[in-house]
Amino acid sequence: MGNPKTGAVQPAIQYSFKRYEKKYLLSREQFEELYPKLRQRMKEECYGLHTICNLYYDTDQFDLIRASLGKPSYKEKFRLRSYGVPRREDYIFAEIKKKFAGVVYKRRVAATPGEIQEFLEGAYLAHEDAQIQREIHWFLQSHVIVPKVFLGYERIALEEAGDFGLRVTFDRNIRFRRENLDLCAGDEGQSLFPDDIIVMEVKLFRSAPLWLAALLSEHQIYAAGFSKYGSCYQRHIAAEFFRERMLQSC
Question: Which pairs count as long-range contacts for 206-210, CB under 8 Å and 24+ apart, including other chains?
Answer without folding.
Answer: 206/20, 206/163, 206/164, 206/165, 207/20, 208/22, 208/164, 208/166, 209/160, 209/164, 209/166
